[in-house]
Write a structure and sequence with these properties.
One of its GO terms (biological process) is methylation. The protein is of the alpha/beta class and about 210 residues long. Helices cover about 40% and strands about 20% of the residues.
Amino acid sequence: MTDQQQSARRSSKSADEIADAYADVADKLARWRQLDGLFAGRYRRRQFEHANGRVLDVACGTGRNFRYVSSSSEVVGIDISTEMLAHARSELDRLELDGTIHRMDAQALDFPDDSFDTVISSFSTCTFPDPIAALHEMERVCTPDGEILLLEHSRSDAAPLAWLQDWRAESHYEKNGCRLNHEPLATVEQAGIPVGNASTAFFGLVTTIEATPR
């Protein structure tokens, strides 16, 4: 782990601080829906189009993943930010999907064990104050034969880009509550959750992970 990564981990924000950070940008992120579709849509579709059954979207934000989940699924979205959830509710209505949203801390999900057939999350483990705890909660609420599907940004495998991420990591986290240079696969492995498949794309900046509950 680099000095910059260690510094970002030491200065971890609280869940309330993360909520405040995203309250300030919720409207802007909602307006960027088409831009997100252009750049991240292909990855969201590949990772989440086969999510089925009762689907939990952890840290759902403004609901960017909803359009890629099967229309036959029941979608439940949770996020720490009330402002983000207002846009997520509008997205569910716009797509006419069967679903609900709840304000909830990903590190302490208010659902019984084995509640969901599929748990999905995108670009989120970089923001959780304790990503290991959040991953364990995803595992807890997922059925034993279900799937945990993650789409994350990650530290690049191209040295110049990785250097830039490391250089900006501390200031980026302070402003946005996002660990710019985190390594999601290492985090999932540290959580002890079995990984069935993982891949990277776009100079290693995008990581997809398919995991299963123990």
